[in-house]
Each structure stands twice: as C-alpha cells, then as structure tokens.
What we know:
The structure holds two protein chains of two kinds. Chain A is of the alpha+beta class. Chain A folds into three domains: 20-52 and 104-226, no CATH class; 230-319, no CATH class; 355-461, Immunoglobulin-like (Sandwich), CATH 2.60.40.10. Chain A is 41% helix and 19% strand. In chain A, the strands form five sheets. In chain A, strands 8, 9, 10, 12 and 14 form a five-stranded antiparallel β-sheet that branches. A four-stranded antiparallel β-sheet of chain A has the order 13-11-15-16, with no helix packed on it. Chain A has a three-stranded antiparallel β-sheet with strand order 3-4-5, with no helix packed on it. In chain A, β9 (368-370) and β10 form a beta hairpin. Chain B has four helices and no strands. Chain B has helices at residues 2-5, 23-49, 52-55, 64-99. In chain B, α2 crosses α4 (64-99). The longest helix of chain B has 36 residues, at 64-99. Mean pLDDT of chain B is 76; it is low at 1-18. The interface between A and B is large, with 53 and 45 residues.
Amino acid sequence: xxxxxxxxxxxxxxxxxxxxxxxxxxxxxxxxxxxxxxxxxxxxxxxxxxxxxxxxxxxxxxxxxxxxxxxxxxxxxxxxxxxxxxxxxxxxxxxxxxxxxxxxxxxxxxxxxxxxxxxxxxxxxxxxxxxxxxxxxxxxxxxxxxxxxxxxxxxxxxxxxxxxxxxxxxxxxxxxxxxxxxxxxxxxxxxxxxxxxxxxxxxxxxxxxxxxxxxxxxxxxxxxxxxxxxxxxxxxxxxxxxxxxxxxxxxxxxxxxxxxxxxxxxxxxxxxxxxxxxxxxxxxxxxxxxxxxxxxxxxxxxxxxxxxxxxxxxxxxxxxxxxxxxxxxxxxxxxxxxxxxxxxxxxxxxxxxxxxxxxxxxxxxxxxxxxxxxxxxxxxxxxxxxxxxxxxxxxxxxxxxxxxxxxxxxxxxxxxxxxxxxxxxxxxxxxxxxxxxxxxxxxxxxxxxxxxxxxxxxxxxxxxx
Amino acid sequence: xxxxxxxxxxxxxxxxxxxxxxxxxxxxxxxxxxxxxxxxxxxxxxxxxxxxxxxxxxxxxxxxxxxxxxxxxxxxxxxxxxxxxxxxxxxxxxxxxxxxxxxx
Lengths: 465, 104
C-alpha cells in the first residue's frame, strides 16, 4: 500500500501516514482480564437473552416501532413519553462524565460494545487459529490446505456470530419468535432482513476487521475524554521512578547494584495491548484502559519476586508521590447531579399517569343548534391506556354552566396498551355567558382500581349573540 | 525466567500484514461514523414525535399490515436520509479543515 499525500494540490502535504500494522494481541490472565470476561459475559448474556424473555403474553423487552410502542417488562412507553428517553440519555451522558473523571476510560475497557464484541471475535479467532505466536506464524506461512481450513473456520465462526448478533438486534424491534419462524420459513420482511444483514455486517467489520482502529480513528469519546481528566483521575500509569532505567537482567541478580530499575523490559505490556501502544511512554489517547498491561506486568513482577504495581491504576498526583484525592468537588457535583436525576427518573416513572386523553374538535361543523336553546359541538376523543391492564374510563366535561356530555358509551373499557377513539358531543344551553369560543375541559376518570384521571382542554364554539 | 527477559523484539516482528489505512480511508471512516451517530440521534428524536404515516397522510386509514410496512420503510428511509445529509455536512467540515491555510 503506497501512502498517499493528504489532499493533492493546494495544501501542504502532511507527513506520510504510517500504514497500519496488524496487531496480534497476546492473551493475558489476571484480575482485570477476569473482570473484563465477567463484563463481556454479563453484557452479552443480557443482550442475547433479553429478547427471549416473556412477560405476560408478550416479549418482555420490545421496541415495537411499527406500532410505535416500547415495552420494558411491565412498563409500556408511547411516543408521548419521549421525555423519559431524553432523560435516560442525559443520565447516560452524566454517568460517562462521572466514571471518566473517577477512573478514566472504564467505559472503553469494559463496557463499550466495540470492546465487548472485539473480545468475542478474538476468542473465536483464537479458537480457529490458535494463540498469538501461532496466528503470527500462520499469517507468515504460505497458503496451504491447513491454512485455508483455519482461515475458513475463523470466517465461518465470525459470520455466524455476526448474523446472530444482527438477528438478535432486530429481535428487539420485531417479536423475535415470529422473526425466527419467518426466517426458517424463508419469508422474513424485507426491512427485517436488510437490518439483520446491515447490523451483522457492522459487527463483522467493527469487531473482526477494524478493532482498535475504531477507537483510534473513529471514536469521538477517545479524543475528548482527556477534557474530563484531572490530576486525581485514576488512570493506568507506569511508575517511571520505580521502573527506570529499564533493562534485562538475571532473576537472581541484584538489579539495584547494576543501576537498573524494576522494569525488566520484557515488552509483555506492549504485546498484550490491543491498540499496540507502549504504556511506559505515558498516557496516550489510544489507551482504552483495558488494563491488560497491568495484568501482564503483575505476572512478571510476581515471577521476578518484585512488588506488584509497576503498572497500576494511579492518579497523576499519586505517581508523583502526592496524596490522591478521589472525593473532590467535581466528583461530588457529578455524583449528586447523577443521583438526583436517577431518583427523579424512577419517581417520575412510578408516578406516571397511565391514562391520557387527546381531544380533537370536529372539523366538519363548528357547532350545531338543537331546538332553539341548545348548542352542540362534536369532538373526536382518543383515550389512551398505557397500563398493561384494561381500565374503565368515565367521561365528563366541565367549564360552562349546564354543560352536558353525550356519547354512545360514556363509560368505555379501554384494553391494556390500547387506544380508543370515540365521538363525543358536548351540549350547553344558549345563554349570555356563552361567547364565540369557550374554554372547556373533557376528563376521563378511571372508575376501577386507583382513582386517577386525565384531562384535556378544548374549545366550545357557539353562535354569536 | 531468562527467556521471559529475552522476549524483547517480538513487538517489532508483528508487522506481517499491513492493512491499507490511507489518509483517504481514515477520512471516509471518520465521515461515515460521525454522520452515522448524528443520523441515529436525528432518527430517534424525529420519529419520536413524528409518525411516518402522518407524512403520507395515512394515519388510521391503512390496514395494520400496510401501515406496519409503511412505517418500517419510513424509518429506514428517514435514517438514510439523515445519514446522507449528516455525511455531506461532515465531509464539508473535514474538507474545510483540511484546506484551511491557517491550520498546521
């Protein structure tokens, strides 16, 4: 691959870009590796299992876009509940600030889908092609039947995983049982099929082929996370004062007398790094804080009989020998704002009124005079029951003296998660108090179970005079 | 243990298969990805308040099967529309930044 200059012609040619070198992350064991495996298993388990869980007679978690309703266990959300989604997004953003300020890129190392799926794809790769040294040897080897077989196996495993991921993703939006049966019968909807392939392709590309390059070149968070860091943020640090000067030595030797620090320069920390950086050069924006280098280095320190923690989670202040301050104004501010938002969110959901009413004035006739002394207006009333159980809603109106409500069924049942549109007639006697446009209220009161109501305001139009 | 200290140099052997990530590929990746995020946000906020059926004036008139298909099409077309618009914006921004004579 030749390296092209940045933009031909009118700009200064940027320094030639170093062509990407394939990174072969070395497998590593240790505390943080176990933590990441636990995170990967629980997050992916949640992702793959959740759509199969049932709740009453439906899928427990279903974002039913065609019907414009979201179900999350006993809760049903409607487009009118959009505020909860925005609220949730604000909580998510603030959590990111909080955890980044506390301990750097925890998100990147343990929870980001990019990390989680890359981890799975690396496992599958290892299954097909073996450990790091074997993979590197295989790539260098000339093509043979064995190499073809291993490579094919890898791509088959990756494709299967990617397609299943795409299928699960679409299963959050289309009932997954129906979707599975449709696919087995060869009759999936065109958009369902398209999104399965689209998401499968994205998984394959991001987790299989692009990997750390997504973090390096494409992720905006990687670039601005440093703005949330301060001197007291826990970051993965190499203890330079203790490690330098680095150098190889015999285990039995007294390295202090040789003028060496604790770093034996084995480069294991570089080999395990999924983004291929050397943490000993200091914090770099490519570091996704996966802590693989900590695990690797701790293992080496154990075998050398040195104390652990040459590479460790430490604050900048801590490495410089000053007191680390975890509890600082920034953390208290973020933390309390986050707690307030979460408490508010839960409260708002718990107190959410499952009943709503929409009133639309009939467009065909503004009013009708019945007999000589009564004015009638017609409305289309839409009753919404966001609860999972059916409720009986009694309709009433107020706002004018002698105002009466008439409809075919003034106490209709509205099924759980259903809407009901009914025509409602309001009548009021002609009187001097009646102006051309009057403000009236139509109320739907739940007449079974918890007493609650929803009310909508509308106009009552009357002839002049 | 000695061989542990002698593994130095392996890192340099890693360069077996360089992938073609030219400046142009990186530009493409940045433009596609940043506009993808923007398009996803725009799709969510737009269709939370706007029913695709309203755009074509079909609310309540189409049967459930047709309206399901129509909404799915609406969401997908909406998403790609936003992606294209955001992609154009990202590309223009990138182009302006790259061709700015003041920038280093």
